[in-house]
Write a structure and sequence with these properties.
CATH architecture of the largest domain: 2-Layer Sandwich
Radius of gyration: 20 Å
Order of helices and strands: EEEHEHEHEEEHHEEHHEHEH
Shape: globular
Number of helices: 9
Bound molecules: fe (ii) ion
Mean pLDDT: 96
Number of domains: 2
Structural class: alpha/beta
Strand order of the largest sheet: 3-2-1-4-5
Strand content: 15-25%
Number of strands: 12
Length: 341
């Protein structure tokens, strides 16, 4: 093994610790502690206190899984954003402490970049167009001139947020995607499409979901069959993101396409994405479901790539950035994936 990097993820609901090596590239540990609220959305402060309570065990478990000692780790990577401030600060504090205490370089990782990098690494698609869909993001992106450029995004809420909020509002939570199915998918079974009841919003390269959410909740309150509303909501929302991805493919002329982020675990979305790619003769491979959601492995492997270019940060300068945009990050290692190191 050339280098071993330990990565820490704490941007949203999951505190993750991953350990990976280069030459050969291997995932040596993957520990995730996920905060699940009893009801309602996630409150940043509650998440932060949950993260603080599980961080020590998560680290110990990850080292145990890998069979390594902290001294065997070459560097510590940490997701410094984007995400919820209180949650981010827990991961950052743990990472800074490890870096300072054990004198390991600290590597700043952008969470969105990490979702893309794990999709590239595990699909082997080196230069894909990426549809990145999660609870907090809906972005069509690909690498152009040094960075991941945004070719389309949501103007308001993210796709995952649309599905989760709808599920909670109409009482079909828990909304998490399990075995490729979201609560909205379960509810949509045997549903029929309600013509012109939910607005389809694609504006240029962008999508908008807040109007869809309001319309869908209103339909349920008016007494429309829940299965029909679930089916229609999903059709409209998924068609919109696939359409902007299609435009991104036409515009950038990329020859491959991947899905990344938590909603990439959805079987229905994967199916729609695959059909669209086939129509355009583009190779489609989505991120493996197990690594669609937030995890420490993606932070560690992005750290490995960054370290190969000498990217580290001083502990004193390692501030969290709640709104750290994907297109602000230089990607000097592109098109390398961890297997190339
Ligand atoms: Fe994420």
């Amino acid at each position: 093994m050339d280098k071993v990097v330990l990565g820490i993820e704490s941007t949203a609901h999951t505190f993750g610790v991953g350990i990976v090596s280069s030459n050969p590239f291997e995932i040596l540990a993957d520990v995730r502690k996920t905060y699940k609220p009893k009801e309602g959305g996630i409150l940043p402060r509650e998440v932060a206190s949950f993260f603080s309570s599980v961080a020590g065990n998560a680290l110990a478990e990850a080292l145990q899984q890998s069979g390594l000692k902290i001294g065997d780790i070459d560097a510590i990577a940490v997701a410094l954003g984007p995400g919820m401030g209180p949650a981010l600060r827990v991961g950052a504090t743990v990472a800074r402490t490890l870096s300072a205490r054990y004198r390991k370089p600290l590597i700043p990782v952008n969470h969105a970049v990490a979702h893309i990098e794990i999709a590239r690494a595990l699909t082997g698609l080196k230069d894909p167009l990426v549809l990145y869909v999660s609870g907090g993001n809906t972005t069509v992106t690909t690498f152009v001139e040094g960075r991941y450029r945004v070719f389309g995004e949501t103007q308001d809420i993210a796709l995952g947020n649309l599905l989760d909020t709808f599920a909670r509002e109409v009482g079909i939570a828990p909304p998490y995607i399990i075995e490729g199915m979201h609560a909205v998918d379960l509810c949509a079974e045997n549903g029929e499409f309600l013509e012109e009841k939910i607005p389809y919003r694609v504006k240029g390269q962008d999508v908008s979901f807040s109007g869809i959410l309001t319309a869908a909740i209103r339909l349920v309150k008016k007494g429309f069959k829940l299965s029909d509303v679930c089916f229609t909501l999903r059709e409209v929302a998924f068609s919109a993101v696939i359409e902007v991805a299609e435009r991104g493919l036409a515009h950038t002329e990329k020859k491959s396409f991947t899905l990344a982020g938590g909603v990439a675990a959805s079987d229905i979305l994967r199916e729609k994405a695959s059909l669209m790619a086939d129509e355009h003769n583009v190779l489609f491979k989505p991120v493996p479901k197990k690594f669609a959601g937030d995890n420490g492995v993606m932070i560690a492997l992005t750290g490995l790539l960054a370290l190969s270019e000498g990217i580290t940060i001083d502990v004193e300068k390692s501030f969290v950035k709640q709104r750290w945009r994907l297109d602000e990050v230089d990607i000097p290692w592109y098109p390398k994936i961890p297997q190339d190191l």
